[in-house]
Design brief:
Cofactor: Mg(2+)
Shape: elongated
CATH superfamily of the largest domain: Phosphofructokinase domain
Protein name: Phosphofructokinase domain-containing protein
Number of strands: 2
Distance between the termini: 63 Å
Organism: Entomoneis paludosa
Pfam family, one: PFK
Helix content: 40-55%
Keywords: Kinase, Magnesium, Metal-binding, Transferase
CATH class of the largest domain: Alpha Beta
């Protein structure tokens, strides 16, 4: 009713998965009422996991914020205990782009766990021996 009363013929919706599901529902409602309204979804996600595009809206801002978190964790780890460890969990659902870009950009991370790579805890290639070794040498 809102779109119809204002004679809107084009609706652009910017957002992630949930926003696009809502955009589809708006499209279906317009179609059911035979309204001539074009509904266009523009992807925006900090996950940067959209096929066919290099960088999604919001990704670089999220990387910058994540790098600030990394710097903060580094300061806290160095100031509170000898050989302190900072652990940061970032958003990214099932994509590690944000974690990888932030870690590489900061240069202050010794290990980064991303969903695309299975985690091995123990053994020669395990993350725990690596972390233990890094804590002892720093």
């Amino acid at each position: 009713e809102f779109l119809k009363s204002r004679q809107i013929s084009q609706l652009y919706i910017i957002g992630g998965d949930g926003t696009h599901r809502a955009a589809y529902q708006v499209h279906q409602a317009c179609r059911a009422q035979s309204l001539n309204i074009a509904v266009a979804g523009i992807p925006k996600t900090i996950d940067n996991d959209i096929d066919y595009i290099d960088r999604s809206f919001g990704f670089y801002s999220a990387v910058e914020a994540a790098q600030n978190s990394i710097r903060t964790a580094l300061v806290e780890a160095r100031c509170t205990l000898p050989n302190g460890v900072g652990i940061i969990k970032l958003m990214g659902r099932s994509a590690g782009f944000l974690a990888a870009f932030a870690a590489l950009g900061s240069g202050d991370c010794d290990a980064v766990l991303i969903p695309e790579v299975p985690i091995v805890l123990r053994g020669e290639d395990g993350i725990l021996p690596h972390i233990f070794q890094r804590v002892q040498t720093q």
